[in-house]
Amino acid sequence: RGKRAFIAGVADDNGYGWAIAKSLAAAGAEILVGTWVPALNIFETSLRRGKFDESRMLPDGSMMEITKVYPLDAVYDSPEDIPEDIKMNKRYAGSSKWTVQEVVESVKQDFGSIDILVHSLANGPEVSRPLLETSRKGYLAALSASSYSFVSLLKHFLPIMNPGGASISLTYIASERIIPGYGGGMSSAKAALESDTQVLAFEAGRKRQIRVNTISAGPLGSRAAKAIGFIDKMIEYSFANAPIEKELSADEVGNAAAFLVSPLSSAITGAVVYVDNGLNAMGVGI
Ligand code: NAI
Predict the structure, then answer these.
(1) 147 CB less than 6 Å from ligand 1?
(2) In sequence order, what are the residues at sequence separation of 6 or more whose Cβ sits closer than 8 angstroms to the Cβ of residue 51?
(3) CA–CA dist 34, 20 (Å, integer)
(4) What string of DSSP letters covers 30-91?
(5) Which of 38, 39, 123, 280: disulfide with 145, CB 3.0–4.6 Å?
(6) 215, 260 in Cβ contact below 8 A?
(7) Would you write out the chain's pLDDT as a tens digit for each of its 286 residues?
């Protein structure tokens, strides 16, 4: 049978999550997605109305099918964690069972198991503030949404992941080099995500033979990236300075992700893999 993938962090057809879903679908995987609760309504409506039909097209001419969309908010592990204001929030009231634990329970009930876990989500409420001006609350929120969310998803999915399965997340080079503008603790969150990739590779590998890798992706004009404000500059900078002089397409990251969760990469785990036209290898801009 084909593999089953759960992709957390898809809410439109512009981001890396969507491109990864397409690459996995093209390789024959069944696609389940987890969509941030406040974005769920518009995503499902757009899907239903055919707004994404053009970008659902796969290389063989068929359309990517999303078997099921689960509402998800990855900053909450179980119902006890949900604060009152979120419970009362109109955008959350229409959905249920969207904490990490409940989503995994639903997937288990619906399908029994998965083979592939993709984490393509991040959020840093103070991302546009320099680290020196970031509040404790903003910093911890960035870590919660962008780093611990992966620990939590892997922890809860692990018992229903088939041995030989794999997970992948998305990181950014701001974790290890200075990228002014990537603030609010987001650089810190990516550093945590990369370090956790190693520790979790060991723990999930020993426990269930599951691999854990992360892709350090080059700049893409996604919805999240546009919110940061300097993405066009980064795309230009990359074009001007990377060894391969071209704009990075989300599909290239999708294809690398498909490789990293497939048996073709069965000995790769705990790795940060750069998919950035080689920009990371440059010492200075030219
Ligand atoms: P995107 O906007 O397509 O994806 C981010 C997703 O996270 C959105 O769908 C959003 O709804 C979801 N999300 C935010 N908070 C959430 C929560 N609490 N629970 C569940 N979902 C939540 O943007 P993009 O850029 O494709 O981001 C995907 C990943 O790629 C992120 O980890 C990002 O940091 C990473 N990345 C992006 C780069 C870029 O230039 N766009 C470069 C390197 C890494």
Answers:
(1) no
(2) none
(3) 13
(4) EEEEEEEHHHHHHHHHHHHTTTTTTTTB-TTS-B--EEEEEEE-TT-SSGGG--HHHHH-HH
(5) 123
(6) yes
(7) 799 999 999 999 999 999 999 999 999 999 999 999 999 999 999 999 999 999 999 999 999 999 999 999 999 999 999 999 999 999 999 999 999 999 999 999 999 999 999 999 999 999 999 999 999 999 999 999 999 999 999 999 999 999 999 999 999 999 999 999 999 999 999 999 999 999 999 999 999 999 999 999 999 999 999 988 889 999 999 999 999 999 999 999 999 999 999 999 999 999 999 999 999 999 998 7
ipTM over 0.90: yes
Q: Annotated catalytic sites, by residue?
A: 172, 182
222 lines ligand 1 (CB under 6 A): yes
How far, in Å, is the centroid of ligand 1 from the Cα of 119? 9
